[in-house]
Specification:
By secondary structure, this protein is mostly helical. The chain has helices spanning about 10-25, 35-45, 50-55.
């Protein structure tokens, strides 16, 4: 479990964010990958490192 959020297991935020980004890009093709990642950053309270990982690894 993470220190900042003991309710969610470590990595759960990232799994949820990746799933949400994928669903968002599929259902809203007008959104760019960058827009979806920026929204996920806020929605899932991602760290700068997590956001960098998404930017570099989600196509």
């Amino acid at each position: 479990m993470t220190a900042s959020n003991p309710i969610q297991p470590q990595g759960e935020k990232m799994r949820k964010a990746i799933r949400w980004i994928s669903d968002t890009l599929r259902t809203h093709p007008e959104k760019t990958r960058h827009q979806a990642i920026c929204e996920a950053e806020i929605r899932f309270d991602l760290s700068p490192e997590e956001c960098r990982f998404l930017e570099e690894n989600i196509e």
